[in-house]
């Protein structure tokens, strides 16, 4: 049973650019959630995808968007990057929408300069 | 709104010392409560959970009891090991419609010295 895989592990972008982060969910999991973890802070919920549709969103602007594919993998896209977007982005998959049984990936460390 | 407050770290203990990390929450309704652990360079791992008042979650020697009267979920371990050094996050989950996102505290860094 594979876990949650995120790519890339690290990247550096320039302010104003766009970035795409990827996540492969754990086998048998149909729900993917994304979290942003700023340095020294707890993770904050960005949004959740279930059966290819967004079904929950935290307090993040529309320039944060996502996709979920038929194989339940997911992408997080961030447009018009700002310095404050520098953070660890965590993907978590679960076997249902209820939020139980989360498996987290190791994250993508994004640095915006 | 819903929120989690946990004691600030870092916490430094000697091996075999007793550990307590305080966590209190504010929530509408009856949330489920969790402790997650994050080792350096890794994602979050579920340590334990409790889904209703007076439930005790336990795992790997760690325990936490869901106290509704004090809105608390303090993490305890009787004898810590160097391998317990990590960042610990208290979290709550509320259900709104079909969504079940987690709300985390800021985390408490634990360092255990030999």
What do you see in this structure?
The complex is a heterodimer of chains A (113) and B (114). Helix content of chain A is 0%, strand content 50%. By secondary structure, chain A is mostly beta strands. In chain A, the strands form two sheets. In chain A, strands 2, 4, 5, 6, 9, 10 and 11 form a seven-stranded mixed sheet that branches. Chain B has no helices and twelve strands. The mean pLDDT of chain B is 92. The interface between A and B is medium-sized, with 25 and 24 residues.
Please summarize what this structure is:
Chain A has 113 residues and is an all-beta fold. Chain A is 0% helix and 50% strand.
Number of helices of chain B: 0
Helix/strand order of chain B, N-terminal first: EEEEEEEEEEEE
Q: What summary fits the major beta sheet of chain A?
A: 7 strands, mixed
Indicate the percent of residues in helices of chain A: under 10%
What's the Cα radius of gyration of chain B?
Answer: 14 Å
Q: Helix/strand/pairing class of chain A, anyone?
A: mainly beta
Shape of chain B: globular
pLDDT average of chain A, as an integer? 93
Tell me the distance between the termini of chain B.
41 Å
What about the largest sheet of chain B?
6 strands, mixed
Q: Give the amount of beta strand of chain B, in percent.
A: over 45%
Largest interface: A-B, 25 and 24 residues
Low-confidence stretches of chain A: none
Order of helical and strand elements of chain A: EEEEEEEEEEE
Low-confidence stretches of chain B: none
* Count of DSSP strands of chain A: 11
Q: How many H/I helical runs of chain A?
A: 0
Strand elements of chain B, count: 12
